[in-house]
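Next up, a specimen:

>
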Amino acid sequence: MSADCFSLTISNAIAHIVLNRPEAFNSMNRDFWNELPALVREIDEGAKARVIVISSTGKHFTAGMDISVFTDGESLGAAGADRYARAEAFRHFVKLLQDTFSCLEDARMPVIAAIQGGCIGAGVDMTSACDIRFATADAFFQIAEINIAMTADVGTFPRLCKLIPDGWVRELAYSGRRLPAAKAKEIGLVNEVFSTHEAMLAHVMALAAEIAEKSPLAVAGSKQAIKYARDHATADALDHIATWQAGMFSPEHIAEAFAAKAQQRAGAFPDLAPLRKKM
């Protein structure tokens, strides 16, 4: 599909989605919220890649929500409607925005974020929905909504609270302070920090290539099990993975993995199957 806010390339089973509005600091205008889930679902449902990489262009990864999303009138409900009816409609609008980033978490393949400069406001919502995050030394994260008298609502708190210590979430949420890349690594938000954007992307693409060589079924099962374990009790998560294995355990894939290792070659695993979109 064509997109105004992103470019997409797919090569060697890696889908690379790039935010490409550097002149606007990659702010998230209305097109962004429609295009991102469409791109991700096209890749996921069509099983077009084994890994998704998200990177950006220019000085900042993203400046966050473009204020026009909230000021163009459409998002606030019909003019003249009862205030409570407008509030109910606005709730559904927020849930629509949330779904834009939930698609990253719901995708069957891992999503890796490569972050430079500012990752501000909804950028934190977005990257917290990714599986793995890397950053450049100049990167920073900011829950900026508090600075415009808002509560972050598109996914930051449900996910960030399970990624970094509670005290750090509260400090960032209440103060609007910037979290520098070095501290983000120290508290576990990013896996590694790089001196340049080029070095970060080289590392990210190498990791993506390594993941793409693994069994896509096993990787999808791992992602599903990790997500389920995060949101459920240990006993429930153990039962869930046992049920998964009962249906998805593949002796053929395991045999191929051992053979590939013995022969010092990449494994030849089948891709995930495309998903049926409708009856």
Q: What stands out?
A: The first helix runs from residue 30 to 45. Residues 9 and 16 are 5 Å apart (CA to CA).
